[in-house]
Design goal:
67 residues, single chain, Helix Hairpins, mainly alpha
Length: 67
């Protein structure tokens, strides 16, 4: 998902998605720990998606404070 699509979503939707990605990240780390991770690149993808969502949330927060 790209940042432009995220900017169109509401804050509550972004927070829900962030929660889901954090759970997915946890599950991927557990799979890696026990040696069952089939696609190691998923960890990097999830980490970057989390960062994108947090960036958009911070932009929205700063935008609402400036108004």
């Amino acid at each position: 998902m790209n940042a432009q699509d995220m900017r169109e979503k509401k804050v509550s939707e972004l927070r829900e998605e962030l929660t889901g990605l954090l759970r997915e990240q946890f599950n991927l780390r557990m799979q890696r720990g026990i040696g069952q991770l089939a696609t190691p690149h998923d960890i990097r993808r999830v980490r970057k998606d989390i960062a994108r969502i947090q960036t958009v949330l911070n932009e929205k927060k700063k935008g609402s404070e400036a108004s």
